[in-house]
Known about the structure:
alpha/beta; Rossmann fold; six-stranded parallel sheet; 9 helices; 8 strands; globular; AB_hydrolase_1; AB_hydrolase_fold; Sec-Metab_Biosynth_Hydrolase; catalytic activity
Amino acid sequence: MADKPAVVLVHGFWGGAAHWGKVILELRNRGYGSLYAVENPLTSLAEDAERTRKMVNQVDGPVVLVGHSYGGAVITEAGDLPNVVGLVYVAAFAPDAGESPGGISQELPPAAFENLAPDSDGYLWIKQDKFHWSFGQDLSDDEALVMAVTQKAPLASTFGDNITAPAWKKKPVWYQVSTDDRMIHPDNERKMAARMSPRKTIELAASHASLASHPRDISDLIDEAAAEAG
């Protein structure tokens, strides 16, 4: 276990660290003894990136930083730390400097865009009765219900926060595209992946929640990144 890098997992909008549960178990079974999952506040890109940096700074040794969904924007902003040896994007945003997740989504809106609902406090939710269809149509009814009820809504303003200096321009990258994604348009994922010149891109016939519906495939990609970069 000692010769494997640490893996730090970063969740996205409408989720928390527990969304990585199946991947965590899979990686542990593959001998990863240093696993961390950041719990971001989803209040601004700056605050989420700082929370992630603090987690990475607690790790003594190399780190593979993995981001799902908006977590990809977070690792793009926070991944320039010296001990980060690789970035893995899981159905994730990978904005360039001056770009935001919201701006990218507006260019090519995803299928579930209309199922987002703001509340009176400025948070943006996925409508509970639309969550299964929107976020994880390849999950069981029970699993999707739990995700829907426990979803962690971001401040809507976070969608418009721009990347300053993208770490993917300095670090090796791996990317997973979900071909049936309804939260980020699959063609947007392909576009973001291609311009980063990743070491490897995989496409899965998966929903946005590929980390939960395809944990072995996601762990394979993380494993490969750890072997090459770590």
